[in-house]
Each structure stands twice: as structure tokens, then as C-alpha cells.
Amino acid sequence: MTLRQDFIHESVAAGDAAVVGRPLRLWERLYNLAWLRQVAIIVALAAAWQIYTSVLDNALLFPTLDATLEAFWQGIVRGGLLARAWASLSVLLVGYAIGIALAFLLAVAAMTSRIGNDLLDTLTSMFNPLPAIALLPLALIWFGLGASSLVFVLIHSVMWPVALNAHAGFRAVSTTLRMVGRNYGLRGLSLVLRILLPAAFPSILAGLKIGWAFAWRTLIAAEMVYGVASGGGGLGWYIYENKNMLETANVFAGLLMVIIIGLAVENLVFGIVERRTVRRWGMQA
């Protein structure tokens, strides 16, 4: 074999060869686990909590972590905390589902007609800045002391951020994809469902997350008012009730349940959907 003169061929000893790839060390493999990093952050916050409350030494103002965990466990054993959590979630799911359905109707109407686009722009400009909790007094007058009032304010808190994100995602779809859909004879709703919806799903998923966060915090705040008015309610009323009785550890236990449910929904529900859709499709790192 003839060697070309413009290439330099040198023999390299095995010990002098550069390492192209090497196995990751144990701490590097552990650091790459997102759930483990989150657990480490939670453990650090818990340690800071325990140290601060031990120094403060005022259980009425700020209970210790172990006192909060004891109150949390007792609330679960007695059944009251779980029952209140389910009461909140059952109302939340109804309002969240209806809000999503209405938001997609508005977003689809905005993409299929100019009147629909003007309608969405006008309604979101009017109602999106309006706090959902501010509508609770009107909801109590219109629908009475029942779950319908809570569902009404939840729909308001969910509908506008989901509709805005869905509409923004639809508008960000490239013209090439739109033309491909039209070349296949897709028009109106079929174009939205087969072309725009998959392409805009990252923005839609972000809107669903924002809508969930808005709905969850709105529900807890509304339940405090609703619980005082009717003598019942979910986690919000549980927190308010224990505050009135100066059971600060139980108040923190209720807040801990709110946080746990939020983490579970974010990491389990939305996390699974994100991994099986936008990450699997290569639309997000």
C-alpha cells in the first residue's frame, strides 16, 4: 500500500493514546439523575427548616419539621387531611377540564376565522388580568354556597392562560407545515388537529402547567372564603380552620399536603406526558 505524502503516519504507544471516552464516575452518574438532585434540594431545605425552628424555639410562630411531620401523619391517620385533599382535587379536576375545553374552543376559533382571533384577543385582554378570586363574591351570588361557585372561578383561572399559550403555539407553526397540510386537503378543524396541534404541543403543555398552577392556588384561596361561608371545604378550609384554633403545626401540615400534591402532579402527570410526547418527538431537550 502506497502512503500519501500529504499525510503524516506516526506510531503511538498504547500508554500515550488519548482517552476518547471513559465511564462516568459514581458521583457523575448520580448527578445526572434529575430526581436525585430534586431530593437533595428538598433535604437541604428541610435541614435549614429544622435548624431555624430549633434556634427560634417558638412553636406557635413556626413549628419544627418533626412537629409538622407528626401533625401531617396524624392528619392522615385520622382521615381528615386525606378527605380534605380529595374534596379539593375533585372540584379542581372538574373546573380544570371545563376550562381546558373552553380554552381550546377559543384557540381553534381564533385559528380558523378572523372573528375568532379578534374575539380571543379581546376576551383575554379583558379577563386575563382579572384575578379569579375577585369573582368569588359574584359566583356565590350567582351559584350559591356550593361547588359550582368554586368551579366557576377555576374555569376563569384556567381558561385564559391555556388559550393564550395554545394560540401562541398555533401561530408559531411554520408556514411549510401549514402548506403541507393544505396540500393534503386539510382545512379548518382537521388542519388544527392533524398539523397544528402536534406542532404546537410544547406551548400547549406549558399552558396546561400554568393553568394547573393558577387553578390550584385559586382553589386553596377560594376554599378559605367558601369554607367560612358554608362550614365545609377542602384543604383551604382545613388550613383556615386550624389557623383560627392556633394549631400552627396543622396549618403547616395542610400546606405540606398542598406542596406534595403540586410536586406529584408536576413530576408524575406532566413529567410523564412531557417525556412521552415533546421529548420523545425531539422537540425539547
CATH topology: MetI-like fold
Major beta-sheet overview: none
CATH superfamily: MetI-like
Number of helices: 12
Low-confidence stretches: none
Polypeptide structure, described:
There is one protein chain. This protein has a single domain (65-276), classed as MetI-like (MetI-like fold). The model has no long low-confidence stretch (mean pLDDT 83). α8 packs across α9 (188-199). It contains 12 helices and no strands. The longest helix has 33 residues, at 80-112. It is 75% helix and 0% strand. It is mostly helical. The two termini are 46 Å apart.
Give a concise summary.
The protein has helices at residues 26-31, 34-56, 65-78, 80-112, 114-127, 136-143, 147-171, 175-183, 188-199, 201-230, 235-244, 248-276. With 285 residues, the protein is an all-alpha fold.
